[in-house]
Every structure is written in C-alpha cells, then in structure tokens.
Write a structure and sequence with these properties.
alpha+beta; 23% helix; 8-stranded antiparallel β-sheet; 232 residues
C-alpha cells in the first residue's frame, strides 16, 4: 500500500475544492487488489449482502464488512481520514456548519456511535456484464463524513469493459454536469459524499453531487468502497 502521508495532498485538496473528486494512481498493488477481491466469497466477513436489482439500485451486488475490518481496509480508512478531516473542517467553516471532525478516525467513529450509528460501512461491490449502479449518495444517518474513497480492484480493458464511474453535479439554475472517470486497478478515487462548497455572489453554497457506475459491457468488476462514517 502506498504511504498515504506521502501523497501530494495540497494538489489533491485543490482538485477536491474545484471538482469534488480526484484520482490518486496506484494506492494499492495488483496483489492487494486480488487479495481484497478474494475476500468476497467469505461470508463470515460481512454483515449484509445487498442485491441492487431487488432495491432498484441498479444491477449487481455489494457486501458490507463487519467489524473487525480486514487490516488493509482498516489502515486505508484510518490513514485517508486524517488529511481529509482537515479539508472537511475547512468546508464546514465555509458553509457555517457546527460539526467539527476529530483529528483521529477512532474519535469520529465514537461520535457516530453516540448517534446510534454502529454498523460498519466499508464494502465490496461486484458487477457482471450488464451491471450498473444508479446515481446516489452514501449518507446512512445524521452523522456523515463529507468524503469517501473507491478503489477499483479490477483492470478496465482487461477484466471488464464499460463500468465507468460517473459523477454528477447539480449546477445552480442549470442541468446537472456529468464527469466520467476510468481509474486503473489499484487507483483510488476520492469524492464528496454529498456536496462541495462553491463561492457565489452571496458567499458559499452547497453544490450537490451524486455518483454511480455505468453499465458493464463485458467482464467482471470488483471495487472497494471506503466510507468513513458508520450506519444506523
């Protein structure tokens, strides 16, 4: 796993401020990706399995991990949280929100649990040909962290075709803007969970964003989702 502390965070924060998302290349190795994807059949690791078609979320399946999380996932969750919490607090200050995010992820999880959000939210998503995920947000309760991370565990153009990540942003007094992103295996996409602050004529406002996955044309795609808050 790449040392998260050595990532070029000033440039990353600029992209998150300006676009609401950023791709970081080669955060985990191909071997890490295969190891994580191979966890998927191990039912004892997961607390819940969601069939997307049943709930009209799309077509495919995802599984939420139970505590304790696998070591690599726990490390990713804790290490990404620290620099992102700094930016999260800058955003809350710009938007006049009262919530302050603690420096350590463990303290943020304590805050979630005080609000009866006790269920872990990291997950693995699995798609076959024809699979997709509709545009959505991963909030899960009153307390949520404004960023999340997706690591693609399969290689586009080798393991699957299609299946691009789609980010949409609701522009003021206009239609939504869409961005299509194709990370490589092991890349991390950081993006806003709900909105990003945008400066308008009367100060900053919330520009709402959603994310999804376009239809797989062929093959099989795994992805790891790192959500920092727990669920009710």
């Amino acid at each position: 796993m790449k040392n998260v502390n050595k990532i070029a965070w000033p440039e990353i924060k600029i992209s998150l401020n300006e676009k609401g998302f950023v791709v970081i290349p080669k955060v985990i190795s191909k071997e890490d990706c295969l190891e994580l994807a191979n966890l998927y059949p191990k039912q004892e690791l997961f607390r819940n399995v969601i069939n997307m078609q049943r709930y009209r979320f799309g077509q495919g399946e995802y599984k939420y991990f139970n505590y304790p999380l696998p070591q690599l996932i726990q490390q990713l969750r804790e290490q990404f949280y620290v620099p992102l919490a700094t930016l999260a607090n800058q955003w809350t200050s710009l938007l006049g929100n009262e919530l302050t995010y603690p420096e350590a992820h463990s303290n943020f999880i304590e805050l979630c649990h005080k609000h009866k959000q006790n269920r872990p939210t990291p997950l693995i998503l699995h798609y076959f040909t024809g699979g997709f995920n509709t545009l959505h947000q991963d909030l899960y309760g009153e307390i949520y962290f404004p960023f999340q991370v997706v690591l693609v565990l399969s290689q586009h153009g080798v393991d699957y075709e299609g299946g691009e990540l789609v980010m949409t942003e609701q522009l003021p007094r206009a239609q939504s803007k869409a961005n299509v992103i194709v990370p490589n295996q092991g890349d991390a996409l950081i993006f806003t969970t709900n909105f990003r602050p945008v400066k308008g004529t009367r100060g900053y406002y919330k520009s709402k964003m959603k994310h999804g996955v376009s239809e797989l044309k062929s093959g099989e795609r795994f992805a790891l989702g790192i959500i920092f808050h727990d669920a009710t």
